[in-house]
Amino acid sequence: MRLPFFVYGTLRPGQRNHDAFLRGRIRTERPARLMDAVLYDGPGYPYAVEEPGGTVHGDLVTAHPDVHGELLAELDRLEECTPGGDPRDLYARVRREVVLDDGQRTPAWVYLAAPAVEARLRAHGRRIESGDWTDRA
Known about the structure:
Elements: E1 5-7, H1 18-22, E2 26-41, E3 46-63, H2 68-78, E4 91-100, E5 105-113, H3 115-124, E6 126-128
Parallel strand pairs: 1-5
Antiparallel strand pairs: 1-3, 2-3, 2-4, 2-6, 4-5
Pfam family, one: GGACT
Keywords: Acyltransferase, Transferase
EC number: 2.3.2.-
């Protein structure tokens, strides 16, 4: 399925992985929000965790169709996400609806904290209250 990607951490414009993975491979990049989710500091990179009432700020990126599959595989490796899931994964790639700045809703691939990581974050993690990785202190 060729969905766009919702990025909220090191893949956002100006962050360390943006150019290495996305430059020249995407058609569009638009501000967006993932609703009913909160953000935790990794540290070094963030984790989104589903939680009613929360908001995670990021960007919706649409890959060029001819590189979508290749980019999807590369992002899965970057995020240590195994299609189908593995207990050692850091993230789980899931389909979720995101909201663009104009209010339009669209489905996207989102990397959420994998279940074991989510449990550790909820117990001991540092939440980024703004929901925006670029605002972390």
